Amino acid sequence: MAGKKKEASLQASVTNQEQWEEMLSTKGLTVVDVYQQWCGPCRAVVSLLRKIKNELGDDLLHFATAEADSIDALEKYRGKCEPTFLFYGGGELVGVLRGANAPLLQRMIVEELGKEKLVLEQGGERKAVKDDGLVDDEKKEEETPQQSENEESIIVPASKSYTVAIIKPDAVAHGKANEIIMKIQDAGFEILAHEERTLTEIEARDFYQHKAAEACFEDLVQFMSSGPSHILVLSQAEGSANVVPSWREFIGPADIEEARREKPESLRAQYGTQTLFNAVHGSEDIDQASRELAFFFPNFRTASVTEQDGEEEHVERTLALIRPDIAREKRDEILAQIHKSGFTVALQREVMLTGEQVRQFYFQHVEEDYFPALLRSMTSGPVLALALARSGAVHHWKNILGPSDVNKAREESPECLRAQFAVENEPINQLHGSASHEEAEQEINFFFPKQQTLAVIKPDAMEEHREKILEEIRGSGFSVTQLKETVLSREMAEEFYKEHREKPFFGQLVEFMCRGPCMMLILTKENAVEEWRAMMGPTDPDQAKATCPNSLRARFASNILHNSVHGSSSEQHAEEKISFIFGDICSDAEPTGDGETDTTTLAKEQDCSADDNAGMSSSEEMSNNHHQQLEGDTLNLNSCSPQTGGSEDPEHSN
After folding, report:
1. What is the pLDDT of residues 608-638, one digit of tens each?
2. DSSP code of residue 593
3. What is the dihedral of CA 480, 486, 489, 490, to 10 degrees?
4. 205 belongs to an annotated ligand binding site
5. Thioredoxin domain: which residues (predicted)?
6. Nearest to residue 361, comparing CAs of 380, 345, 343, 385?
7. Residue-number span of the structural domain to which 433 is assigned
8. Is 553 marked as binding a ligand?
9. Residues 470, 359: one domain?
């Protein structure tokens, strides 16, 4: 019992809002262990805290535990199991540490106590910090913009310079990321964008392509893909003419021994362990910073002079084709060049073309002498089709492709892509580019025809998440062609999910789908079926949280039955379900705006798909089906696309 009393006196127990506010008024530094009711406070650090308290013997140092479940101010921490320690001085948050990292916790306590004593003794100003866990979502986006595929472009004034910073896997694995970020901000750097991601080997290889000739290249690739990194875009609040040298000065030399000897206060000296594991990365110059920005944040751009005057810079698309002779062996190298040139790959598909499709695409060249060679080349294997996006995409892609005649490209522009990737004894160039903006859109439609898919916002998500889901649907580039809010009758729900009639969960599923209104939508976009399924995430929310944390089901679903949204599993299933829900409608129908409310029963007999297994069957089966769609080696273009493409001589063009 004596031990328990000691423990209680060491850490004040805060279990309600009133106690929390009282704790914040305590003079000195208070270190709060935030915990969830179901798991309790972090017991592993209690002996360390007692040791620190005994060694320092300072009446201005206080420890507390706080139950997030019952304190309004800690609402954003609910549901998180990672140990979190908040440092408060004078009622203000002055430090945050996640994880039970004993050496770092001890060091932060000593440092923050020293700072707080200076404030109390000399009347200095506290440096308050903000923790993402306590900031509202809207404020969080404003303060530390997070780039994701569902967000709009991040635009900053052209007067600001910027650079890419990476907190590498070694520093992240040792729990140093938050500490480094705090030091970055303390040093006057402004974080314009921040994303945590684990690089694939291909991404790491592409990113460090300029180091490919170095002996450590393979080790570097393996290291950078070994765990999560934090990718940041930095500027300086005071608007430095060039932030790149300032950042490189702050991180110190790449060699750790040199950093410790010459720049002991630098980040690499403090956090690096050897040259490869040197904690942080910085762009070497402005050009490299620009390429790295395009690699990690393709929607990050500066506002041009015209934009600042109110006119927005136009981003256009162009079609690129990597022909079969080089599509397999050289694709990664070419894609790296594309990223370095500032393009975003908006759409990508590997396609096996038939002779008829080649004639259709190059209809203007069928009578030319070179056409048989072109036909043979284009049907000899899979073609990699890409829709590339950036400002001036058509013109820029044509410029880096170089002359259309292979011999001319080698002689006049040996650095151009067509010269670099020419095939020996092959007269046809290996890379295609659209000749104009109009032709680009026609060619993109040929390889990426618009699809329709059926989306359903289920009853569990209608009240709380409907508007957010609709906003994200439109923000992801889908057109809502038809929209209908309806209450399903039992007969309609049974027909909709009739494939599952013999399964044990069928009755529960039907009852759930009839319990309130749901929203039916027809979504239109290139590759709509796959993109909507990717946006939804796996059927099982637990699997979604583990593998696709930004997906709708990861964020809004509560279990396999109540999984928020539904989507068709294939284009054929989409057609069937759209016909079942909306009847016979024109596929080119205009968007309906807000749609209409319809609570009638549809008696039409149609075969429905087992797309997401009704939210109740094996999530593994759904996931496998989905991955088969996304990872298939080749696709055939079976639709009859309009005649497009190749207005220039394809032997010397495109």
Report:
1. 333 343 333 333 333 333 333 323 334 445 4
2. T
3. 50
4. no
5. 1-115
6. 385
7. 315-448
8. yes
9. no
Q: Which residues pair with 194 in a beta bridge?
A: 232
10 Å Cβ neighbour count for 327? 20
Question: Are residue 627 and residue 486 in the same domain, yes or no?
Answer: yes
Q: Which residues pair with 479 in a beta bridge?
A: 524
pTM higher than 0.85? no
539 marked as binding residue: yes
Confidence category of residue 536, pLDDT binned at 50, 70, 90: very high
β-pair partners for 30 = 62, 88
Q: Are residues 203 and 347 in the same domain?
A: no
Matching residue, tokens 């904690």: 279
Same domain, 104 and 182: no
The single-letter DSSP state of residue 134 is G
Q: Is 563 annotated as a binding residue?
A: yes
Strand partners, 248: none
Same domain, 470 and 444: no
DSSP calls for 312-332: PPPEEEEEEEE-HHHHTTSHH
pLDDT at 80: 62
Q: Are residues 488 and 501 in the same domain?
A: yes
Helix, strand, coil in percent for the chain, rounding step 5: 45, 20, 35
Q: What are phi and psi of 617, to 5 degrees?
A: -80, -175
Number of structural domains (the chain) is 4
Instruction: For residue 291, say whether it is annotated as part of any ligand binding site.
Output: no
Catalytic residues: 281, 432, 566
269/319 same-domain check? no
Contacts of 281 (CB under 8 A, 6+ apart): 164, 165, 166, 168, 251
The answer to whether 125 and 146 are in contact (CB under 8 A) is no
Residue 571: name the closest of 493, 645, 517, 636 by CA.
Answer: 636
